[in-house]
Amino acid sequence: MDAASASSSAAAGPSSSSGAEPPAAAAVQPPKVAPLVQLQAPQQLQRGAAAASGSGGVGCRHHAYSRKQKSLGLLCSNFVALYDREDVETIGLDDAAKRLGVERRRIYDIVNVLESVGILVRRAKNRYTWLGFEGVPAAMKELKERALREMSGSAVLPPMEESSTANLSDDEDDEKLGDADEDADSEKLSQSMDNTSDKPDAPSCRLRSDHRKEKSLGLLTQNFVKLFLTMEVETVSLDEAARLLLGEGHAESNMRTKVRRLYDIANVLSSLNLIEKIQQADTRKPAFRWLGQAKRKQENDFMVAQPPARPSKRAFGTDLTNIDNKRGRFDSTTENKPKLMLGAGNIVKSFERQLGQGNKNDFVYGPFHPAVAKKQETGDHAVKQQERKSIEDWENLAVSFRPQYQNQALNDLFGHYVEAWKSWYLDLTRETSS
DNA sequence: CGATCCCGCCAAACG
DNA sequence: CGTTTGGCGGGATCG
């Protein structure tokens, strides 16, 4: 059973007579396909300080095919560089694909995650609106609120294991609550869409459809981010993430696919500087840390695949991997299983208040004060980014917010919460509205 | 060798 | 029906 794929099989069969797909570049390189190596700004991209560094010629150094040149991360950077202008505001998918010199398919990938983070909004078929990085904070806030809300809903349930436990899947965002900012997300996104007063005559039409959206990259991105927004210890390995976002049923193959998707997402998020890849101190396991503030690559200009010379630290993937500077806290020494915050309902209450309040992070809350509200970089290169009315790290604050338990017992207790989480996350993912 | 993740087939979701 | 959107997983690359 297991509907799902089964079919496919396809077997790739790279044979696929190239034919006339790839525009330009018809050099049948030794290695497999090797379509085009061009890229480079076709249109008039900004040039700024480009030139400079010696050879202006792009990709003259035929080097065979490098996947790094076509990574989603790089593509995302280019995408941003291309559209993060003041005047830009409407984007056409085909146009983007053409300008960036990639297949349509890839644009969908980028766009989907960008929308999940609030940088874009879908207006209509083939048309997106650019909101820019200013849209991120709002989206984050929204995500966090939702996550918190859902969490409190079904966090402390007794045993309960197997899925399919009718659960009040919350849902939906409340829209227009104040009216400060015009917010971002509107329709689409967010799961659950029961049909109240469905159309006339809709016999037995279970909502089996939507299965597409459940697995969507957009939703996965949101859940991935939610993880960061509500978890203490800000580092997660994709493996853990997949396990968390996936139900208990750890279908090996299912997991593999999920991880693949997470890699994609992580790449894009990295290029946006929302997260960063790091090496777990002790473990050699690579993981990701939430950076919070989206920031555009300081370097303007497109970054076409850089020749094997001056790599200039890429978002990640290339050298330069901080060795995890975990908060100087002797906490969990046992293992770094992601622990979720979520303790007394009070804490949640506090957050709600904080969020509802709006800004002003001066308040002091109860017993635990914001210990490390300043999360500064590790003195890496000083990157001064002028942020318009920086939207604050209400987010950072929140993270450093949770009390530090020195009691191992409590730490242990969290383990159970993880269980609970898995449950509701599962529900949240496979939605089974009655 | 295992971790990473690009490519693009091909099927749902819309017109 | 043609298009647009986008799961999904083979398998090439990277480290």
TrEMBL record:
Entry's transmembrane regions: none
List where Low complexity composition bias occurs.
1-27
PANTHER family found in the cross-reference section: OS06G0245900 PROTEIN, TRANSCRIPTION FACTOR E2F
Keyword annotations: Cell cycle, DNA-binding, Nucleus, Repressor, Transcription, Transcription regulation
Q: Which domain of life is it from?
A: Eukaryota
GO CC terms of this entry: RNA polymerase II transcription regulator complex
Basic and acidic residues composition-biased segments = 196-210
State the compartments where it is located.
Nucleus
Q: Which organism is it from?
A: Digitaria exilis
- Region annotated Disordered, chain positions: 1-31, 150-210
Q: Which Pfam families match?
A: WHD_E2F_TDP (PF02319)
Compositional bias segments (type: Acidic residues): 169-185
> What positions does the domain E2F/DP family winged-helix DNA-binding occupy?
67-132, 212-292
Name of the protein in its database record: E2F/DP family winged-helix DNA-binding domain-containing protein
GO molecular function ontology, one term from the record: RNA polymerase II cis-regulatory region sequence-specific DNA binding
The family note in this entry says: Belongs to the E2F/DP family.
UniProt keyword Hydrolase, yes or no = no
